[in-house]
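Input record (one chain):
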Amino acid sequence: MMKLKILIVDDNPNIRQLVAITMESLDCELAEASSADEAIKLLDNFKPVLIFLDVMMPGTMNGYDLCKHLKSTPRYDSIKIILLTARGQKCDIEEGVKAKCDSYMVKPFSPLDLLEQTKAILRDSTTI
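The corresponding structure, as predicted from the sequence alone:
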């Protein structure tokens, strides 16, 4: 069976590391990007089933923009997206819903909650 491919997009290397360590219990292959622009360059070769996506990042796009782009592009629209962000206001969460994210988690998050959320989202689309 092929390994699940998960892309972690966050400009903070500590968050990328925390997410990577949290995902170790799943049999998955991980890739990391520090910006939306970098993530886009990885997509076609890496082909992730899930992206952990920060909202506030440097570059031409923020996480909401990348999420909207992926969900409106047929070859990427099946990728599951979990927004991981420090922006926890109601208007921020509504922006995430508008961007069609599959889940929205506010930092700091519990690694256990992140793992459970990941399993729940992947259970709907693949076998884990």
